[in-house]
Amino acid sequence: MNEAAKNQAQTHESSRGLGRTILALAIPALGALIAEPLFLLADTAIIGHLGINELAGAGLGTTVLQTAVGLMVFLAYSTTPAVARAIGAGQTGKAMAAGRDGIWLALGLGTVLALVGFFGAKPLAAAMGAQGPVLGFAVDYIQYSTFGIPAMLLVLAATGVLRGMQDTKTPLYVAGFGFAANIILNFILVYPLNMSVAGAALGTSIAQWGMALVYLWMLVPRIRRAGQSLAPHGRGVLRTGRVGSWLMLRTLSLRLALIATVWVATGQGALTLAAHQLVFTIFTFMAFALDALAIAAQALIGKELGAANAQRARLLTRTMCRWGVYFGLVTGAALAVAAPFAGALFTTDESVRQATMVGIWILAVAQPLCGLVFVLDGVLIGAGDARYLAVVGMINLVAYLPMLYAVTRFEHGGVSAVAWIWVVFGIGFMAARAATLSWRVRNDKWMRLGV
Description:
Layout: H1 3-48, H2 52-70, H3 74-88, H4 92-127, H5 132-146, H6 149-164, H7 169-190, H8 196-225, H9 234-267, H10 270-306, H11 310-342, H12 350-382, H13 386-408, H14 414-440
Helix pairs in contact: 1-2, 1-7, 1-8, 1-10, 1-11, 2-5, 3-4, 3-6, 3-9, 3-10, 4-5, 4-6, 4-8, 4-9, 5-8, 6-8, 7-8, 9-10, 9-13, 10-11, 10-12, 10-14, 11-12, 12-14, 13-14
């Protein structure tokens, strides 16, 4: 066998092994990702039988909680690459120190958010339009949920530590047991103990603290065995916070894009808003699978760069980009076939069904772009390239808003409005993100080798 053929065979074998490694991380990560929406789904299902006011109040409270905690997702995204780099470099002590500092940062931020949420629950809910009984239930939900916010953020940070250690199975198991406990607690507190909406929020908070304590039970001995103090290191906490601030800005740019899109859909009428919400629900569901690939990319890229293995990092990036596009093609084809029937699962209104079908077809076309974007996002998070992600996030938002504004300048029917909204979001916004992320990985300048 000549040298070229030998190298090609080695690359092929390496790619096959890499594929197994990616799947071993991505599949459990997908299960853990689904757990958090299931917590909220359990709350909604149990509260839904209490009455309209209770459901509306809990829905408003959930929106406030999701927004606050969603912006803190950087706690997982900043600890994963930091721990993975140190693991790749063979420095377990530094890995555990980074995880410890991330956990302390989570507890500090969680405490601040809990206090703000508890005392600001009523003005927050009122500012969002709640009044009468709905306002009371919203306040109850927010205040009883604030007890669990520090635990929620601790779970994010601890999950990031384990991902950095190339372990996505443990978060899956913890999330599964937490979900089961959440359902039992909520049912008992809401019905036999007659705590109504407050009971559902309190049950979720208790379940979150249970998960947080399990993570501490697992991680504290590892930190001690690595020769690290349990006390936070000021510089380490600040370092995590600095990286996290850039990642929070990146997340904020994405949320602003989503809010602006909903605002435009609302302005186009109830039919457009209803259909847009259904298409966006499907987009969110598909995003879980793509985010699982992104999480695998974070952990693996961080480890390879920590080990100063630039060649392996390049191979990993190319492989996962292909996987993202291929997965997008498969899910896009499935969506295209399902589009004529999907609307019937959610509504009996024929006009909404038609608009939803068109929106899903456009989402189907956008899926390969989405796959590439999610994977590249994970690669650069794993590389610790948070500042670039934040800056281009804002650039992409600035590029997207004029496209979105153009939709409002024309008179649309429901189908036409939904179609154009998803053309500019699913294709226009995602294309801008794909271009800026692909530009970054065109060479090796984004790679920072070693710890």
